[in-house]
Specification:
mainly alpha, 9 helices
Length: 160
């Protein structure tokens, strides 16, 4: 979310490229980094096709997903707060959807979790809006280790 907020506030293509490189550097696991690029590239292509007048020469390199999402939202004239609420909600829902497919988490329980996290999600959006640079960090060593191990598994729940 912090990267999306910083991209929303970026004034130049150079700032977006630097942010894309920073986001890429925060992703040490190739599968995660490449997935972020694939999604970002799809966002970029689709936005150019659907909104050619607003997107102009939008070409972020590397095309990390949160950077493209923020840049597209700004070019479409979306309100920053509304965009970040949507972005955070969308990411939370994606994580819960993955959990229902790979864990014994029922859709009902996923919705309960989603509803219970709404106040915290709104707080986080405001915190990121207050200082997006301070919010741009990653500290998920267990997740990174598991993501790295996934590449070497013979059977996986999700392909990356």
């Amino acid at each position: 979310m912090a990267a999306a907020a910083l991209a929303y506030r970026a004034e130049t293509a150079r700032e977006l490229d630097a942010l894309g490189a920073e986001v890429e550097a925060w992703k040490p696991i190739p599968g995660q980094r490449l997935a972020g690029e694939r999604i970002g590239r799809r966002i970029q292509i689709l936005a150019r096709r659907l909104y050619p007048a607003q997107m102009g020469e939008l070409d972020v390199k590397p095309p990390q997903a949160p950077v493209l999402a923020g840049a597209v939202a700004k070019r479409l004239g979306l309100d920053e707060r509304s965009f970040l609420l949507f972005y955070a909600q969308s990411n939370l829902q994606a994580g819960l959807a993955a959990a229902t497919r790979s864990m014994s988490l029922s859709p009902e329980r996923a919705h309960e979790i989603l509803v219970s996290l709404q106040p915290r999600l709104a707080e986080q959006v405001e915190a990121v809006r207050g200082d997006p640079t301070a919010s741009l960090w990653a500290a998920t060593p267990a997740l990174d280790a598991r993501a790295h191990q996934q590449h070497f598994l013979h059977t996986r729940l999700f392909q990356s």
